[in-house]
């Protein structure tokens, strides 16, 4: 008697899957980690050629507000101020860390430029760490609010405070009385254990920089050694 057993599709797919080599796993792990970080990370050489850019950096480059990617080369956007080229030269030629403020039309971005010390690198490389545009991401703010049991109304007020909105502006936006907003701010401060709105901003800035969704590793290739060295440079 021949017995035929039919496996569920998911089980069959799992059975057919082959384990990836350990070397492939080690190469993919840093890239997957980088794409979960809210801060943009770019690795480039003295010519500005981009060797790696995580998801957050890709979004910044795609916006073309202050930084641009042209033929896989990093450029400061036309009209933007900030000596990015000078900071790159200091990092690549003298091994000096620096920071640049890029600004244009009311927009600004702080960029740290760090030398990468790779013994086997064919040429010097630099890591650019792009600053966050707000104290924490929307997901980070939601995680913070959930951890401290904020109500939906309080979460909306906290999000507005992160945008530097004044209580009177929040009241108008939410169509409530100013006294209501002030009561909500007092409740938020009590729950989060801060004595001022500035304390709320400081606490929000301490939230880990996580992205707003799970992502696949960046399409931009980077060797595992390069990715791990970038992590070391950020320490």
UniProtKB/TrEMBL annotation:
Family matches, as Gene3D superfamilies: Winged helix-like DNA-binding domain superfamily/Winged helix DNA-binding domain
Single GO molecular function: DNA binding
Source organism superkingdom: Bacteria
Domain HTH luxR-type, first and last residues per copy: 147-204
One GO BP annotation of this record: regulation of DNA-templated transcription
SMART domains from the UniProt entry: HTH_LUXR
Protein name: Helix-turn-helix transcriptional regulator
Organism the protein comes from: Rubrivivax rivuli
Lineage: Bacteria, Pseudomonadati, Pseudomonadota, Betaproteobacteria, Burkholderiales
């Amino acid at each position: 008697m021949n017995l035929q057993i039919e496996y569920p599709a998911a089980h069959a797919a799992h059975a057919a899957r082959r384990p990836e080599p350990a070397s492939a796993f080690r190469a993919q792990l840093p890239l997957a980690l980088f794409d979960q970080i809210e801060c943009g990370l770019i690795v480039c050489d003295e010519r500005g050629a981009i060797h790696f850019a995580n998801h957050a950096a890709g979004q910044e480059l795609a916006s073309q507000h202050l930084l641009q990617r042209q033929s896989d080369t990093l450029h400061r956007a036309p009209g933007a101020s900030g000596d990015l080229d000078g900071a790159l030269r200091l990092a690549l030629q003298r091994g000096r860390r620096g920071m640049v403020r890029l600004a244009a039309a009311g927009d600004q971005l702080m960029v740290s430029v760090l030398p990468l010390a790779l013994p086997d690198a064919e040429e010097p490389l630099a890591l650019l760490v792009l600053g966050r545009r707000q104290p924490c991401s929307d997901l980070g703010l939601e995680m913070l609010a959930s951890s401290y049991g904020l109500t939906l109304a309080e979460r909306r007020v906290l999000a507005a405070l992160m945008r530097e909105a004044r209580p009177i502006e929040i009241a108008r936006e939410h169509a409530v009385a100013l006294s209501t907003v002030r009561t909500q701010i007092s409740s938020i401060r009590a729950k989060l254990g801060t004595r001022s709105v500035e304390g709320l901003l400081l606490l929000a800035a301490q939230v880990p920089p996580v992205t707003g969704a799970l992502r696949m590793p960046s399409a931009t290739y980077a060797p595992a050694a390069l990715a791990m060295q970038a992590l070391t440079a950020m320490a």
